[in-house]
Amino acid sequence: MVSKEILQYFFSILYQDSGLILDESKKYLIETRLEPIAAQEGFASIDALGRGLMQKRSPILRQKVVDAMTTNETYFFRDQTPFTIMQEEIFPEFLRTKEKSKRIRIWCAASSTGQESYSLAMLIKEMGPKLDGWNIQIQATDISEHVLEQARKGIYSQHEVQRGLSTPYLLRYFTQKGLTWQLKPEIRNMVSFRRLNLLSNLSSVGDVDVVFCRNILIYFDLKTKQNVISRIADLITPNGVLFLGGSEALMGIKSPLVRVEAKKGSYYRKSAPSMRNGNGDRTLSESKRRGVCQT
Fold it and tell me: Inter-axis angle of helices 4-18 and 46-56, to 10 degrees?
């Protein structure tokens, strides 16, 4: 059992270092995720781990704890809708509006073990000759170096490839290695991974046309959401887009991002200055939406 004092301590460092908010209903996460860390570091219990961290204040140990507590749930083509919108609406639009530069930059924030970014890479590969001569960059970031190491290797278990990945994609883009599957170099080389905390300076990301920041805002309080979204919006190019998780929205958050209703879902687009309404959840009429999409 974890004492209330130590539980609150772990919650506090998670909030300080990552902005994520957990409460006592998530006590089981602390118990299941920190027990292995306590054992590896030679502590008799999670309480002992917490007290040891309080006393030693080791940044390395603290990072291990935060990494273990960070939610890393992901799978290939998770919540298919954003990928369908990218395939049927966003990429065809970019082929027209970015024909001169032939450049598209995509950022997967809180990318975890890489399935989301690799799903996009496979989607792009499927477009074939349409993108010949285009410079398409996918950068993926996460706060946890541990999950990034796995992502770079591109090796997944049978269970992981069965979640959301079709058999044709598996056979086309993976090589079986014993009981695991590894993405072929042609897909792995399309994505660059590096550590980045969403609470830190994001300027190193550079300008981006598409941002996937899904299933992370639900763990932030309103102040942190506003902070993160404001800085992400600054990086998005005019008429660039943001995809959130299916249960997430920008209600109550001020930004130049306007909600767009697509045929099979929704996403957010960075509006021109004259179109800003300060209400991220305001849905545009079809005529106004077409205006926003122009470059």
Answer: 60
CATH number at residue 184: 3.40.50.150
Determine the Cα–Cα distance for residues 294 and 238; give it in Å rounded to an integer. Answer: 10
Helix pair 59-69, 46-56: axis angle to 10 deg: 140
Residues 249, 287, single domain; the answer is yes
Q: Is the same domain home to 141 and 179?
A: yes
243 strand-pairing partners: 212
Residue 105 and residue 140: Cα distance in Å, rounded?
Answer: 11
Q: What is the mean pLDDT of residues 194-216?
A: 96
pTM for the whole structure: 0.85
**Same structural domain for residues 247 and 163?**
yes
Least Cα distance to 218 among 238, 246, 196, 259 occurs for 246
Of residues 66, 56, 46, 65, the one with CA closest to residue 5? 46
